[in-house]
Amino acid sequence: METILPFVGIALAYSLIIFFLCEEKSLRHKKLSEMKCIEYDAMKVHVCLEKYQTFRYAGYYFVSALIFTIIIARLSFVKHQLGLPEVLSYIFLTALIGSTFILLFKWKKDLLIKVFSSFMFGSIFIAASAIGFAVSYLIG
Question: What is the DSSP letter of 18?
Answer without folding.
Answer: H
